[in-house]
Amino acid sequence: MSINLNIHDKNLTSNSILHHLPCKIQANEEANVKSYFKPKKSLEGEKQCLSATFRGRPLDGKDIALPEGYVGVIVMEKNKPFSEEKLRSFDAVGCFKNFTQWYLDSQYTSENSIDMVCQTWATSITSAIHSPIDPKKLPCD
Amino acid sequence: MRKLKMEVDAYMSKNDENYKFHSTFGEKLKCEPCILGIDEAGRGPVLGPMVYAACFCPVSSKEDLANMGCDDSKVLKEEQRETLFEKLNAATSDFIGWIIHILSPNYLSTSMLSRSKYNLNSISHDTAIDLVKTVTKLGVDVKEIYVDTVGPPDVYQAKLQRIFPQIKVTVEKKADAKYPVVSAASICAKVCRDKVVNEWVFSESPDIEKNYGSGYPSDPATKTWLRKNVDRIFGFPNFVRFSWSTASKILETEAVKVIWPDDDEEEGDAASNTPAITSFFAAKKTQEIRHAFFRNNKLIQVESF
What we know:
Shape of chain B: elongated
Mean pLDDT of chain A: 83
Helix content of chain B: 25-40%
Order of helices and strands of chain A: EEEHEEEEEEH
Strand order of the largest sheet of chain B: 1-4-3-2-5-6
EC number (chain B): 3.1.26.4
Oligomer: heterodimer
Number of strands of chain B: 7
Keywords (chain B): Endonuclease, Hydrolase, Metal-binding, Nuclease
Mean pLDDT of chain B: 88
Order of helices and strands of chain B: HEHEEHHEHHEHEHHHHEH
Number of domains of chain B: 3
Radius of gyration of chain B: 23 Å
CATH class of the largest domain in chain B: Alpha Beta
Distance between the termini of chain A: 30 Å
CATH architecture of the largest domain in chain B: 2-Layer Sandwich
Shape of chain A: globular
Helix content of chain A: 10-25%
Pfam families (chain A): RNase_H2_suC
Strand content of chain B: 5-15%
Organism (chain B): Clavelina lepadiformis
Binding site for a divalent metal cation (chain B): 39-40, 148
């Protein structure tokens, strides 16, 4: 299976607003986010707090910026081929530099690891995968 | 409907939050020992806020209050309740004061559906306790309180008596029919809840119809309205108490399934750490444990997407 990513600069100019929820919504479709999902900012002492609700459950949010030099791309697949061997094609429809991570009652969540994941991905994994390889340094037979 | 002198506009513009407000009240209530009655409206409905009210007057004005004809708000017609509320309100310059706490449906949902469940009885008790404290802070010399019970009356009475040792506490079933000061509180609460429910402003969309009936789960109009106003993803407008089984059952069939990280915890008895009985019969999941690097970074293998 190979994948084709169609990314045009015009799709990367406006920042999309992204919410990463702590639950799995078993659907992949457009939703009335603007009407139903209204995060609120408040101050608790000096700490900025973000709160929202989803399906009647309380959520606490945190804004997370992508690591320096990264941009997030949102892709959409218009038609998913039936066969696994066929070429798949994704179109970039938006981009983001930051997103909001939502926790279910963060006071009861011990690890808020998404920050760390972003960093690990950016600093360790991508460099290992994408750095050019010097052929001279490859082990020879 | 006549225009009521009850200022709930401040609540309406932020109806996902709670709102506490009180009447003006005369000096008499600050210098004489007072009695205070507490009651609530809208405990059972699946829609709208639960409204808590306290009404208070000097011990010396007990008779005057009784003569106003307050009765259990449930046996009175809407118009009678409004008339009585206006009479009560007119007396706030003299011997009566009231305080109301509107608990928004959003607050009820999120409290009851938080990770550490905050149940309706505890919410009710805490709200009543807070009302007494607030009235005391306003300078009213509360000597006796009368409360319509939530849960077993003796337990509730002992709890309140412990918190307010200097006050004579009476908790009874149907206190709203027995004590005029509780009847007065029940009228304030009911009139407020009715007004808020009738004039609800849907922040989700101005097009949502208001033919929701009484809001009680047993009302067919309420059920029809609930089914009609499901959003596949978000469920309901925040006018609905998601924590009511009437609401959650409709979502099970009419909306997209949502899986939460604490879904498993609900099975079995969390308090005693007893696993769900079914877990003994299920096949043991054999799961390969991956290196800590993958687990800590939440990296999982994806075979299809």
